[in-house]
Each structure stands twice: as C-alpha cells, then as structure tokens.
Amino acid sequence: MRRIALFIALMSTALALGPALAHLLELPNKIALPRNAYFTVQQIYAGWSLLGVVLLVQLLSIASVIAFAGEEHRLRLCAIVALLCLAGAQALFWTFTYPANAATANWTVQPDNWQALRQQWEYSHAAGALLQLVAMASLVVGAIGRARKGID
Fold first, then answer.
1. N or C: which end of the chain has fewer CB within 10 A?
2. What confidence tens digit (pLDDT) does each residue in 51-62 have?
3. With helix as H, strand as E and coil as C, how does the chain read?
4. What is the pLDDT of residues 19-75, one digit of tens each?
5. CA-CA distances (angstroms) from residue 99 to 29, 36, 111, 123, 125?
C-alpha cells in the first residue's frame, strides 16, 4: 500500500504542478497587459476548476503516504512537508485567488479595482506554484530515500 500511495502522491502532485507552473511562467508576460487584453487572456482558464479533482487525489494520497509510512520516518517527514505545502497553496488560493475570481465573475466582469485584483490573482498563483514545487521536491526526496535503502 505504501508504494501505491507514494506513486499516486507523486503522480497527482506532478499533475497539479503542471498548471501551477503555467501560472508562474505566464506571469511576466501577463502582468502588464492592458485591461481588455488581460480579460481576454484570462478566458483560457475556463474549465480549469476541474483540476480540483487532482488536488483532492493529491491530498488523499499524501495523507495515505503519511499513514502507511510505518517506520520510514524520512518518508513520513517528506510527506508531511508536501502536505503542508499543499495546505499552504490552498490557503493562498482561497484567501487571494478565489476572491479575485469571484469579484470578476471569473474575469468576465471588469470592476474598477481590476488591477489590484490582477496582482492578487497572479502573485497568489505564483506563490502557490512555488509551494507545489516544494511539495513535489519533498516527495521525490522521500522516494529517493526509499530507493537508496532498497525498500520495496
């Protein structure tokens, strides 16, 4: 069960990291766009809320790694770090990103404070991406530690 949980945790974290890094990498090109161009570009994210399923799998699989770690203290610690990073990324999303989405009706309504909302949205996504990257790195360190010990 430990191997399966770790595999699913690694895969779901990798799948969550992809879109997160996309947000981070697009930031320098989008942050200074004029209003109409920015609102147009934001429409490419329609449907990305379905990625919530990946995040749920990520949460459950990392929690399973922690539960099944047994005497593998390093693996448990790495999974705890990954779980804390996921929690931090979600805290950023619900505190900063989601309110910007709500205030703009998913970037279809252009309120007067759209520039502040854009910064809130972009930088919260960037920080969340960095946390997902640390989560992935931590799980990889845990998996490498198992491989070095020859644990099946």
1. C
2. 999 999 999 999
3. CHHHHHHHHHHHHHHHHHHHHHHHHHHHHHCCCCHHHHHHHHHHHCCHHHHHHHHHHHHHHHHHHHHHCCCCHHHHHHHHHHHHHHHHHHHHHHHHHHHHHHHCCCCCCCCCCHHHHHHHHHHHHHHHHHHHHHHHHHHHHHHHHHHHHCCC
4. 999 999 999 999 999 999 999 999 999 999 999 999 999 999 999 999 999 999 999
5. 23, 20, 13, 13, 13
In contact, 55 and 90? CB cutoff 8 Å: yes
How many domains is the chain partitioned into structurally?
1
In contact, 8 and 46? CB cutoff 8 Å: no
- Round to whole Å and give the CA distance between 15 and 28: 23
Q: In this structure, are residues 6 and 75 in contact, taking their beta carbons and an 8 Å threshold?
A: yes
Show the domain range for 124. 2-149
Listed in sequence order, the residues at least 6 apart from 51 whose beta carbon sits closer than 8 Å to its beta carbon are 16, 19
